[in-house]
Amino acid sequence: MRPMAVLLEPVALPSSFPSISSPIETKSVPPPKARVRVSEAAAAAALFPMPIAMDTGGAPEPDEESVVFPRWAMLDRRGRTRCHNGLNAARVAANKNKTAAPVDMDGGPSCYVSFTLAAPQKRISCLNLHLPEEPPLTPATPPATDKNLVLFDITNPSRSCYWDPPSDLFVYTAGGPSPSVQPLPMYTKERERPFLMDNLTTGILRLAEDRYIVADLNVYPKRKGNGMRAELCVFNSETGKWEIIRKLDPGNGGQFPELWSTDNVLACDGRFLCWIDYFSGVLLCDFSTSTPDSSALRFVPFPGENNFSDEVRVERYSPQRFRSVSITQGTMRFVHIDNDYHDSLHGAWQWLKLPERKRKVQRHQPCKKITIWTLNPMFEWEQHCVINLDYLWAQPGYKALDIHQRLPEFPIMTVDDPDVLCCLLREEDHGKGWMIMVDNHAHLRSCTPESESRGAEAHDNRFPDISLLPTVFCKYLESPTGVAWIERKKRKLKSAKVKAWNLVTGVEHFGDAQIKDVMKMVY
Q1: What are the two backbone dihedrals, phi and then psi, of residue 490, each rounded to the nearest 5 degrees?
Q2: Does residue 313 sit in the same domain as residue 330?
Q3: Which residues form the DUF1618 domain (predicted)?
Q4: In terms of domains, do 48 and 190 share one?
């Protein structure tokens, strides 16, 4: 059966809900004033408001600013490499994309990066690395983002050992006349616990006055006694240097786990970097001060049942399939999908099984649900809503997919609507997949087949077995929805209407007074 897109009727929302997009308001054309002669008024009525199609002698070229960027996107954490016949060919190919920016690398070839962007309900977005030759480098990996910034790394494939120098880090900045890329200096100091060896532990935080910090976290047991220590390796864009912040205590009254593994890093509120262990909780660091200390760290354990065994915590077993933390409209949300009986893993981890915490008889399984919590200003979790999956499975849109009752996976709260959840839905045994949007009432908002969501340019149309990266940097790119673009369009429209008036009246040349009269009549 060929994958099909399921089109669903929109769900009516209260007027207080935020709108994803708003139409551009346009002014209605007022009637001609009485002082205009009858013949001119008749001509004006023939001209306005209906547009006139004019033969220009050939097909018009597309507007160089006709691309409209989405307000936010779901970014694949695995980049794509595109090889070209030389640096100039790479530049020409990359510059066809308004997101393109040059990358200068010390000791290596220069290259270009660009982004393939789309609205989340349409497809997954991706970072592209344009190389002037066959890849001496691996595809760029974007591990973190905040506001108009995207942190990404480029790795040499010859790096085969954990102790080899870390990947080159870069910061992509959207905004201004064109995007730019800044390489970060290498941190090469040898130490017992090296930094920047795992991109999932490194985050970026946008500060005031165009400043930012990049920070990497190390967590390790204390040499004496129980408990854990934390260290931070922080790059400050203002100083251009890395700094080590040592011996931070994340304990929070002994709640910090003795087994910690970072699954994700998020920026929040222009102030916090948040390291997340999906089996434990969130470790927040407050960067509002110049140098964080132990008082700047706060560990917030997840609500609900978190008594996972040491085996599960060490082996990991892909916890991001059923747990996530997202930032939506400045608020942190934690999502948990019940998964006790749904234990098969996909991709390279197919041979693993997610251990059940409680063995239950299948026929006595309670209804499966998705529970969402909100972190309040007191750093406490409050239950936001519960989504009953029986309601989702009973909908005609779900039944039209012709699959069994499958649990959604890799949940992420949408950036612009705190009551809509984006998930992946897959058949068993490498079957078909879909990207779905579900609201708090279990209504299926949209459903995009896997083949369409990954895009025709993807080498592998299967969904990745890692969580996607929500980002809003695309809204900072220069776009035709800006005020300057609208003003240019207005000027072009006025010019076209004057030319049209010329055709009807037979007057070849207008003086300033006549042009003002026409403009008064048009607007």
Answers
A1: -65, -40
A2: yes
A3: 275-422
A4: no
Q: Is 176 left (phi over 0), alpha (psi -120 to 50) or beta?
A: left
Give me the numbers of helices (H) and strands (E) for the chain, helices first please. 8, 26
> Which pLDDT tens digit goes with each residue over 364-401?
567 889 999 999 999 999 999 999 999 999 999 999 98
Considering the domain boundaries, does residue 20 fall inside one?
no
Find the distance separating the first CA and the last CA of the chain, reported in whole Å.
55
Rounded (10°) angle between helices 38-47 and 483-505: 130
Q: Where are the beta strands (DSSP E) in 314-463?
A: 323-328, 331-337, 369-375, 381-388, 409-413, 420-426, 433-439, 444-449
Residue 254 sits in a domain of what CATH number? 2.130.10
- Considering the domain architecture, whether residues 499 and 471 belong to the same structural domain is answered as no
Question: Mean of the pLDDT values across residues 261-271?
Answer: 92
In a domain, 328, yes or no: yes
Q: HSE (CB half, 13 Å, CA atoms) of 357?
A: 12
Residue pair 462/454 in contact by the 8 Å Cβ criterion: yes
Q: Look at residue 290 in the predicted model and tell me its pLDDT.
A: 67
Q: What CA–CA distance (Å, rounded) separates 350 from 321? A: 13
Taking the C-alpha atoms of residue 442 and residue 438, their distance in angstroms, rounded to an integer, is: 6
| CB neighbourhood size of 227 (10 A) | 13
For the ranges 28-32, 72-76, 97-101, 257-261, the lowest mean pLDDT is seen at 28-32
pLDDT bin (cut points 50, 70, 90) of residue 492 is low
